[in-house]
Amino acid sequence: MKLDGIAVFVAVAEAGSISEAARRLRIAKSVASDRLVELERSLGATLVHRSTRKLSLTEDGVAFLERASAALRELDAAAADLAERRGTLAGPLRLSAPVSFTRLHLGPALYPFLRAHPSIELTLDLDDRRIDAQAEGYDGVIRHGPMHDSRLVAWRLARSRRLLVAAPDYLARHGSPDSLAALNGHRGIFYTHRGIADWRFVMPGRTVQVRAQVGLRVNNGEVMRDAAVAGLGIALLPMFLAGAAIRAGSLQVVEVGAVTEEEFIYIAHPEGRRPSAKLRTLADCLRAAFGNPPYWESGLGAPSPAA
């Protein structure tokens, strides 16, 4: 058996296709296919069912995958340990992160980290959907919001306050709601990955969900912010998106006597997988870059208490 064949098999199992596995490994699809065939020949077993629609693992493939994945992780960890002994952070690091947060904040924080550790080979995939870090082969995922996936171990990087905001023009035309009940009569701008049920607020001893009228549903936070600035409705936005617009006066905080549930910017890795020194060092660098409280909340004051 050759290690490059095992790496292709594990990548195919995680990606669900040879072409995607080849892309992740940065090799030609034909090379990936040849390595997989050679591995099956050396094992004397068929590991993957091939069809025109999709690939799936055979029983032998399922049995081989767990140990093959563990072996590759151990080899990666051994190589990383040697690099650490030499005082160097090196090797591949594959992350998933949200689009708008990366463009506005994560990217500027990452660039100094990569300059300081030029031997790290970072692959950064931008995607706002919820990622299965284990199945999709990520070393870590960076997200904002609550933690729901118990298969992930999360490290907090910064708090992520969310506030209701609207353009002064919209509030002048439609009035400014002063209670949760008053929100029902207003148009809302909603993030499709959370849905209209996302407007949940913490009151003494209970959580209240509000469903405003749908003005716009969209899967990008910056478009939500821009739609709010254009006066299309009220949006519930994280401060890393809305802070600058609030300070500039193009958005105004809507006070309804309640705050949203506590959320965070976090980096998470699959449970049961030892996080590398690269990931731990990156987390420390990001915490320092974002600050506590995070710099994007500067000048916005403390959260309003629940009524």
From TrEMBL:
GO molecular function annotation: DNA-binding transcription factor activity; sequence-specific DNA binding
Keyword Disulfide bond: no
UniProt key word Manganese: no
Organism of provenance: Ancylobacter novellus (strain ATCC 8093 / DSM 506 / JCM 20403 / CCM 1077 / IAM 12100 / NBRC 12443 / NCIMB 10456) (Starkeya novella)
Residue span(s) of domain HTH lysR-type: 1-58
Annotated GO biological process: DNA-templated transcription
PANTHER family associated with the record: HTH-TYPE TRANSCRIPTIONAL REGULATOR (PTHR30537), TRANSCRIPTIONAL REGULATOR-RELATED (PTHR30537:SF81)
Entry keyword set: DNA-binding, Transcription, Transcription regulation
SUPFAM superfamilies, per database record: Periplasmic binding protein-like II, Winged helix' DNA-binding domain
One Pfam family this sequence matches: LysR_substrate
Family: Belongs to the LysR transcriptional regulatory family.
InterPro entries to which the protein is assigned, alphabetical: LysR-type_TF_proteobact-type (IPR058163), LysR_HTH_N (IPR000847), LysR_subst-bd (IPR005119), WH-like_DNA-bd_sf (IPR036388), WH_DNA-bd_sf (IPR036390)
Name recorded for this polypeptide: Transcriptional regulator, LysR family
